[in-house]
Amino acid sequence: MSQNLQELFDRNQQWADATEAREPGFFTRLLKQQSPQYLWIGCADSRVPANELVNLLPGELFVHRNVANVVVHSDLNCLSVMQFAIDELKVKHIMVVGHSGCGGVKAALTDARVGLVDNWLRHVQDVRNKHWPWLSSLTEQPRQMDALCELNVLEQALNACQTTVVRDAWLRGQQVVVHGWVYGLHNGLLKDMNMTVANAAEVDEAYARALDGIKGRYSPG
Question: Which amino acid positions bind Zn(2+), per UniProt (predicted)?
Answer without folding.
Answer: 43, 45, 99, 102
